[in-house]
Design goal:
- This protein is of the alpha+beta class.
- The protein has eight helices and 22 strands.
- It has a seven-stranded antiparallel sheet, with no helix packed on it. A six-stranded antiparallel sheet has the order 17-22-18-19-20-21.
């Protein structure tokens, strides 16, 4: 595998590990060639899920067909940068490690130069050339080859695939995805109420707090930084007394004066929509009278009412 070269994720969800030796025995289903993310999650207990965070094992996740830049190899692993996930950890993209068997190089890949199919269903089946079926996550994006009455033929890392038309929306290009407003951001996140929290989660199999805000914004045409502290450093600053649905709310220890540790989406009427922490599920709560009310330290807006993406 050539260093400094672009490769494509070839599994429905690839976990971005902190190091090549981060995965434990219980994580094998997540790192095999045909990753079984659902099977992996079903084996995790509260303690082993919490350990993903406490032992700093996982950084983020990527979806099928996402590009990575390989910068280093170690045994059967590669150190990569994810350009679609902006991070203060590396200006070129979010850093982490992925098993090389979960990546594939594809000549003629044209994700940035063609019409794309964006999966809008929570999960969607794709039928590949070899008759294999994969279950892809919400917001997986693949180049369109052709549209038929009930299906869309797309490029995949290994060839072509067929998606159900009802599971996707078609955009002229990634950069021309329709821009939503704050209410649309709320709606994108609201559909995942009850989904269990997953540290590092960036797919409809499980989101962490900043993964949910990233996905809700991405669904509406806004690509924001990956982590909460980076999300809090960008966007348009909003006064806490002037909140609108769809604004991102940030929380810090020591009643808002310590280190930032959480992000959620303002739901309106004093409510917070968020993915709390390990062992809990995506929920809507009243801020008043909670620890979050005391810890609220900042708000940012990545959207505008007209959807023309003027917000930087």
């Amino acid at each position: 595998m050539e260093a400094n070269n672009k490769w494509l994720v070839n599994v429905p969800v690839a976990t971005l590990w902190t190091s090549y030796d981060s995965p434990r025995g219980i994580d094998q289903q997540a790192i095999k060639k045909i990753a079984d993310i659902e099977g992996w999650l079903s084996t995790l207990t509260y303690e082993t899920s919490l350990d993903l965070c406490n032992s700093n094992l996982v950084q983020s996740q990527l979806l099928y067909g996402e590009e990575v830049i390989v910068i280093e190899e170690k045994e059967d692993w590669v150190h990569v940068l994810v350009q679609s996930q902006a991070s203060s950890k590396n200006k070129q993209g979010y850093p982490g490690w992925i098993p090389s068997r979960q990546l594939r190089q594809r000549e003629g890949w044209s994700i940035n130069k063609s019409r794309v199919a964006v999966i809008r269903a929570k999960k969607a089946k794709i039928l590949l050339d070899n008759k294999q079926e994969l279950l892809l996550s919400y917001l997986t994006i693949l180049p369109v080859i052709a549209e038929e009455q009930a299906s869309v033929i797309v490029q995949t890392p290994e060839g072509t695939g067929i998606l159900n038309s009802g599971d996707v929306s078609i955009c002229e290009s990634i950069s021309e995805q329709p821009k939503g407003n704050g209410a649309d951001i709320v709606q994108a996140a609201e559909q995942f109420l009850g989904l269990p929290y997953l540290w590092g989660g960036m797919s409809s199999y499980g989101y962490d707090c900043s993964g949910l805000s990233y996905a809700a914004c991405k669904a509406n045409g806004y690509i924001i930084p990956r982590d909460a502290h980076d999300q809090a450093a960008a966007g348009e600053k909003v006064d806490i007394t002037q909140l609108l649905p769809g604004d991102l709310l940030f929380f810090a220890y020591e009643e808002g004066k310590g280190s930032l540790h959480h992000v959620g989406i303002y739901y309106g009427e004093g409510k917070l929509l968020h993915s709390p922490n390990t062992g809990k599920m995506i929920e809507i709560i009243d801020l008043k009278g909670t620890v979050y009310e005391k810890e609220l330290c900042a708000a940012r807006r990545y959207w505008n009412e007209w959807g023309n993406n003027d917000v930087k």
